[in-house]
């Protein structure tokens, strides 16, 4: 599968945790730039290279390729303490950091974390199951127009001016919701973040200009999405969503680059479904069966360590992702996890009030009562390490027929080719059709 464009966008097509980190890593080897365009450190990517495992949160997966420039775009909210820890962790493992951070990216402040705690308690069953990293309050302050950007931290006077408004606003809201006061004074926050600014200053740049010049020069740019379509605040299961748009069209907004050229848009789809957090989950398995799949797939949050809810593949969800992101390709991951099951279920559509529903309902009420309608497939045997390598060498046709039947059914149902097939967690355990 050779790309005819120098723009590739990789997005999650479910609830996140689909294996985007690995797929990004596979494509990053040919990229000049890898760009993160939304989210914050509430999302995480796991990349396995040889015997080394890297868990990345803010920093794009492309950081593992020395020739590739990793860019954190303006659409990301950044916790300076967390990204510094991540930078130091990579340095300690002798990873060369070719990293740029948008001067327009907004900053997560300590009171945003406090506000996240307060909001989660207040929202109850309408909450999103927040990671409580301060993501939503940071995006809220951005829209209130008293958010603090990376560029503001570099200017002591402007930082102080903006901090006064943001700190007082959040302190009063938290006091109203919880009756609590903030642990850190405004002066303590001011001094702490000025130190972070000094550390991060060499990485801060107008990344929009740099990326635009790179695009005009014909450089290959890979946009790396975080989370998944069902967490998109416009098109996902609102209000059980994240706080920034994560479908493919947002790549241009979150990077500051007008993407009017034809792009390869890859939707990453796990061969089953998982999610962390609260919301209706139509294909969710009961706990006894879920535990088997969860443990086999290592379904525990990269950021939180929380056990993920798991269920069978939901093609209503994938169909919506193909439409809203304009997918040109699907990368199907974790097929190896399903090996050994005698039967595998795939949800083709929902039943709601006795009617067949093929597209995702916007109504939360209807989503809560939706029942999955399944098609059953015969499973396939477990792969040994030797068998995986043999399949990789021979290509797609060497896969067991039951897997090919499963893949081709997905393609027909969602009208998008499955052109990338992952049959193991490592970088080289991937088939490109």
Tell me the fraction of residues in β-strands, as a range: 15-25%
Query: What fold name goes in the CATH topology slot of the largest domain?
Result: Adenylosuccinate Synthetase, Chain A, domain 3
Whole-angstrom Rg: 22 Å
- CATH architecture of the largest domain, by name, is Alpha-Beta Complex
Question: Which class best fits the helix and strand makeup?
Answer: alpha/beta
How many domain regions?
2
The CATH superfamily name of the largest domain is: Adenylosuccinate Synthetase, subunit A, domain 3
Per DSSP E runs of 2 or more residues, the count of β-strands stands at: 19
How many helices does DSSP assign?
A: 14
How far apart are the termini? Answer: 6 Å
Shape verdict: globular
The stretches of 5 or more residues where confidence is low (pLDDT under 50) are none
> Order of strands in the sheet with the most strands?
9-7-5-2-10-1-11-14-18-19
Give the % helix. 25-40%
Determine the mean pLDDT. Answer: 92
- Highest-level CATH class of the largest domain: Alpha Beta
Largest sheet: 10 strands, mixed
């Amino acid at each position: 599968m050779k790309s005819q464009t120098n723009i590739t966008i990789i997005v999650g097509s479910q609830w996140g945790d689909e294996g985007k980190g690995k797929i990004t890593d596979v494509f990053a080897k040919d990229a000049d730039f890898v760009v993160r365009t939304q989210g914050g450190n509430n999302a995480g990517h796991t990349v396995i290279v040889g015997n080394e495992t890297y868990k990345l949160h803010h920093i794009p997966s492309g950081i593992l390729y020395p020739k590739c420039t990793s860019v954190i775009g303006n659409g990301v909210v950044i916790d300076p303490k967390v990204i510094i820890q991540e930078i130091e962790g990579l340095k300690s493992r002798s990873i060369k950091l070719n990293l740029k951070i948008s001067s327009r990216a907004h900053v997560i402040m300590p009171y945003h974390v406090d506000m996240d705690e307060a909001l989660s308690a207040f929202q109850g069953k309408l909450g999103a199951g927040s990671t409580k990293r301060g993501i939503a309050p940071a995006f809220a302050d951005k829209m209130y127009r008293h958010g603090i950007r990376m560029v503001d931290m570099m200017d002591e006077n402007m930082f102080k001016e903006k901090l006064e408004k943001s700190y007082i606003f959040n302190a009063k809201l938290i006091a109203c919701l919880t009756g609590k006061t903030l642990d850190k004074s405004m002066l303590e926050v001011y001094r702490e973040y000025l130190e972070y600014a000094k550390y991060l200053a060499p990485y801060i740049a107008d990344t929009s200009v740099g990326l635009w010049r790179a695009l005009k020069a014909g450089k290959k740019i890979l946009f790396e999405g975080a989370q998944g379509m069902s967490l998109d605040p416009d098109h996902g299961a609102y209000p059980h969503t994240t706080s920034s748009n994560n479908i493919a069209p947002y790549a241009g907004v979150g990077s500051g680059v007008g993407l009017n050229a034809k792009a390869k848009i890859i939707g990453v789809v796990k061969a089953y479904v998982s999610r962390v957090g609260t919301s209706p989950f139509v294909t969710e398995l009961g706990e006894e069966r879920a535990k088997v799949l969860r443990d086999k797939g290592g379904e525990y949050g990269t950021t939180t360590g929380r056990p993920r809810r798991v269920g069978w593949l939901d093609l209503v969800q994938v169909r919506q992702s193909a439409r809203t992101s304009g997918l040109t390709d699907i990368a199907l991951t974790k097929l190896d996890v399903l090996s050994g099951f005698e039967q595998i279920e795939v949800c083709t559509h929902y039943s709601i009030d006795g009617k067949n529903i093929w597209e995702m309902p916007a109504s939360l009420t209807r989503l809560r009562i939706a029942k999955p309608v399944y098609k059953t497939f015969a499973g396939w045997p477990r792969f040994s390490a030797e068998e995986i390598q043999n399949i990789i060498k021979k290509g797609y046709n060497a896969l067991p027929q039951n897997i090919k039947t499963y893949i081709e059914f997905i393609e027909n149902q969602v009208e998008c080719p499955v052109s990338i097939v992952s049959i193991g967690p490592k970088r080289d355990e991937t088939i490109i059709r």
